[in-house]
Amino acid sequence: MLVVGMGEALWDLLPQGKKIGGAPANFAFHVSQFGLDSCAVSAIGNDELGDEIIQTFDEKRLHYSLPRVDFPTGTVQVSLDDEGVPCYDIKEDVAWDNIPFTDELKKMAYRTRAVCFGTLAQRSPLSRSTILKFVETMPDAEGQLKIFDINLRQNFYTKEIIDESLKHCNILKINDEELIVLGRLFGYSAIDLQEKCVAVLKQYHLKMVILTCGTNGSYVFTSHDTSYYPTPKVKVADTVGAGDSFTATFCTAILRGRSITEAHKLAVDVSAYVCTQTGAMPILPDVFKERLA
Q1: Burial zone of 101 (CB within 10 Å; 0-12 exposed, 13-18 middle, 19+ buried)
Q2: How many structural domains are present in the chain?
Q3: How many CB atoms lie within 10 A of CB 227?
Q4: If residue 26 lies in a helix (H) or strand (E), which one and from where to where?
Q5: Checking DSSP bridges between strand 218-221 and strand 226-229, what pairing results, if any?
Q6: Where are the alpha helices (DSSP H) in 74-153?
Q7: What is the per-residue pLDDT for 205?
Q8: Alpha helix locations (H) across 155-241?
Q9: Residue ranges for the chain with pLDDT beneath 70
Q10: What CATH number does residue 225 fall under?
Q11: Residues near 222 by beta carbon (within 8 Å), at least 6 away in sequence
Q12: How many other β-carbons are positioned within 10 Å of the β-carbon of residue 10?
């Protein structure tokens, strides 16, 4: 049961220092904390920052496929507002823009049970091609999860990239701000957030749409039901990686046979905890892991 996070692996340059980041790597790390076999797939440069990513993943016991390419390892300048919400300045023409589709990746795709990918690493044609080939190569067996965590950043997305990704996934993960953008691009502007989610679910024949609304709670929509949980009130250190921990926890719980409502509640609780910690990859307390034992 291999679970893959595919796309950007980089350094978040936060006010308090450098932290390992990138949504797919965050996702893979949190999946691994629940005991599943996970792998972060990206690319790094032939540089010191690339060496440090390898070292950090080794220390965190996170499996990876990180080919070295002739571009610098990615970095993101992160600033936080008064509520700990991040703003990103993402450097371009970096290693994760150039992820090659190798024989190793093809073999990995054949044995992958779940994958998570977004729009950011698809800003370049090479990485976009690699991600979509990987998803296409995965078996179409019952229970396969192909999660499109849309992750809109700056201007690094187009309607075409979103449309193609929706055609390749069976679960969409999106937040309320991103849903407004998607609604504008796809002509759903006149309907409310929940109706937008149902419209996307039906148009692309998805299993689920997961909508997170910050402090206003989160939803999971299926063709026959809706799950809602409020967001716990916690003292926020920063929200970096909280959404990735939500997706990873939800994915793991579904793979472990939990119901959608059980998976949703655990995902809410884990992401709330991650908000109380600095950086995207804090160690989770055993109390969360025991809920999937």
Answers
A1: middle
A2: 1
A3: 18
A4: helix 23-33
A5: antiparallel
A6: 103-110, 125-137
A7: 97
A8: 159-168, 176-186, 193-203
A9: none
A10: 3.40.1190.20
A11: 201, 207, 208, 260
A12: 25
Place of tokens 């440090």: 52
Rounded to an integer, what distance in angstroms lies between the CA atom of residue 123 and that of residue 233? 35
Instruction: Supply the pLDDT for residue 229.
Output: 97
Predicted confidence (pLDDT) per residue in 76-115, tens digit: 888 878 777 778 789 999 999 999 999 999 999 999 999 9
Instruction: Name, in order, each residue with C-beta under 8 angstroms of 203's C-beta and a sequence gap of 6 or more.
Output: none
Find, among 233, 226, 229, the residue nearest to 246 by Cα.
Answer: 229
Instruction: Give the total residue count for the chain.
Output: 293
Q: What is the pLDDT of residue 3?
A: 98
Q: What are phi and psi of 118, to 5 degrees?
A: -135, -165
Neighbour-count burial for 139-178, b at 16+ CB within 10 Å, e otherwise: eeeeeebbbbbbbbbeebbeeebbeebbebbbbbbbbbeb
pTM over cut 0.85: yes
The parent domain of residue 261 ranges over: 2-290
| Integer Cα distance of 201 and 223 in angstroms | 7
What are φ and ψ of residue 116, in 5° steps?
-125, 130
Question: Is residue 224 helix, strand or coil?
Answer: coil
Can you give the pLDDT at residue 79? 83
Under 8 Å CB-to-CB from 270, ≥6 apart: which residues? Answer: 30, 245, 246, 249, 284, 288
SS3 (DSSP) at 230 = coil
Q: Which residues contact 185 (CB under 8 A, 6 or more apart)?
A: 159, 162
